[in-house]
Amino acid sequence: MEEENLAEKLFKLNSSINEWLTDTRVLVDQIKARQDPRRQFNLWRNSSEGKNWKRRQHSKQDRKCALCADYVHISRAHIDHIKPIAKYPDLALALDNLQLVHPQCNLTKGTTTAPASKFQESDRTLEHRDGNERRN
Fold first, then answer.
1. How far apart are CA 95 and CA 72, in angstroms?
2. Enclosing domain of residue 103
3. pTM summary value
């Protein structure tokens, strides 16, 4: 009888631990998502600051793709990471690591490192919606 009672308590404890672990995994995934460099970049890109940067950069690049130097319409231009996020996540929000390119040029480049563009921004610190400053 005592063994059955102990087994029941152990089963309940195990269930509680599994529930806690599941909840903890969800929290860890949420924290990782907030810190994800691609997500942080997308938030910036879609912000008024990111849209203003794109307009300024489009002018600075003389409305040309930084990779092939052909005309690129601002609405079609991709913001490309010269050093890709996959290899350099710490540069996801560095303005001097961004350039405007044709969608096809961006896809062709993939995750390779592009040669430095003459159109790059100077070194700056950004303050983002999350209140953290990012050094570029």
1. 19
2. 36-125
3. 0.62
Q: What is the pLDDT of residue 133?
A: 43
Q: E strands of 19-121, at which residues?
A: 78-81, 98-101
Which of 81, 62, 86, 87 has its CA nearest to residue 72?
62
Tens digits of residue pLDDT in 44-81: 999 999 999 999 999 999 999 999 999 999 999 999 99
- 50: Cα separation from own chain's centroid: 13
3-state SS, residue 80:
strand
Euclidean distance between CA atoms 116 and 94, whole angstroms: 14
In a domain, 76, yes or no: yes
The answer to whether residue 26 is domain-embedded is no
Count of domains for the chain = 1
pLDDT of residue 125: 35
